[in-house]
Amino acid sequence: xxxxxxxxxxxxxxxxxxxxxxxxxxxxxxxxxxxxxxxxxxxxxxxxxxxxxxxxxxxxxxxxxxxxxxxxxxxxxxxxxxxxxxxxxxxxxxxxxxxxxxxxxxxxxxxxxxxxxxxxxxxxxxxxxxxxxxxxxxxxxxxxxxxxxxxxxxxxxxxxxxxxxxxxxxxxxxxxxxxxxxxxxxxxxxxxxxxxxxxxxxxxxxxxxxxxxxxxxxxxxxxxxxxxxxxxxxxxxxxxxxxxxxxxxxxxxxxxxxxxxxxxxxxxxxxxxxxxxxxxxxxxxxxxxxxxxxxxxxxxxxxxxxxxxxxxxxxxxxxxxxxxxxxxxxxxxxxxxxxxxxxxxxxxxxxxxxxxxxxxxxxxxxxxxxxxxxxxxxxxxxxxxxxxxxxxxxxxxxxxxxxxxxxxxxxxxxxxxxxxxxxxxxxxxxxxxxxxxxxxxxxxxxxxxxxxxxxxxxxxxxxxxxxxxxxxxxxxxxxxxxxxxxxxxxxxxxxxxxxxxxxxxxxxxxxxxxxxxxxxxxxxxxxxxxxxxxxxxxxxxxxxxxxxxxxxxx
Length: 554
Known about the structure:
The chain is an alpha/beta fold. 37% of the residues lie in helices and 16% in strands. The N and C termini lie far apart (78 Å).
């Protein structure tokens, strides 16, 4: 006599077959049979119980961001499902694979005003790549297999499955589907590769614009190989951070995002050929770097570009990006920039590297550049840094250098507050024995700060740094720039040292650059979560939106 198997078993068996390592979520009556199996089966993915479903969705998103494979979030019906929405929206917008599973009331209750009854699949449809409700337990595994594949195919994003309680609890006789191998894309056509090669050879100042899609390990390797032999200048989007290695730093000319005043913007404007690799307009719309609609653009990607007035590529090299770059190399080997372009880039780099010799700081506070410089000297290349949205992410994106892909993580498509700490938890799980740093403002901290307890429970080596100024400051300084005053951006103080200690973490406060450096130096990898509260001097924020370069660099 065999043991009975239920829909919940088919769900977990499917996750096992897809080599899922972690499931993030919070249980409830409509989905608790799945949690029971996860908790009590050694072969099942490790269950990470979070303190909010939004945190679970962010953690699952970070699995997609770091590995390319879908992270899995699991929630119960009603508000459990609706609390996933912001994380799934962020994942879909920013190209991160997620499989989210939500509990649902019994099928017989769905047309009634029953407890927690709502149309889950309809709620999630506009913000996911795929959203469906499973009506038959025997189809659970095949539906999971398809949702999982869709989440990571092409431009990655979130898939959502709603599963009624009576489907989860139904007896089943079928076995879980084993995943098929991923379809293999070839490189772009030879004609397209030759076209781009000739365009590069004819160009005076070609520039590579690297987006999030180029941060895949194979793509990064291929791009670095290309740049080793052909030194074309590169500009990164925020989510393309880390693609350029230390030994290729001579090709790197900054990141672009938010304000159209960075050295990378000037370089893109000056260029007579922009090669967009893995670029997604949601990272930094083309209207920002091609406002005059006069850029010559060629795209290398694995999916068709989204065309608009400011982004009209003359050629698209569609296929496996890494293979396309490998095929491009022999066709452009030996290309060198003209002397005038080299001189221009030399002068541009001097401006990029310029720093005021004396930074004026209010007593008891640290200037953003002092924080970034101190932090840069401490962090190792193979350590992960996650950065929340706010003024801090502009300072970090512009001035902090990262040399490994998917090790400096930003939310730049949705600019979603609260991602940093949940992403850091995932990074610490996926990259064991490595210190992980996360950063937030004091505003963003309390969006998901409760997940600090999750990090403590798992004893993860996370150092969370709070840029503390008492405002929603990215909104504040932009309002002041537009209206000469701010509105709706002030809130009361929180003692984050006590906040950290109340959850079992270590808490510190640094009011000088020297104190900050000393604290960072003395944190052990075995210490568990640490929170550093840094009173920050944002008086120079207004300069972030100013035009910084002389007219001749446009």
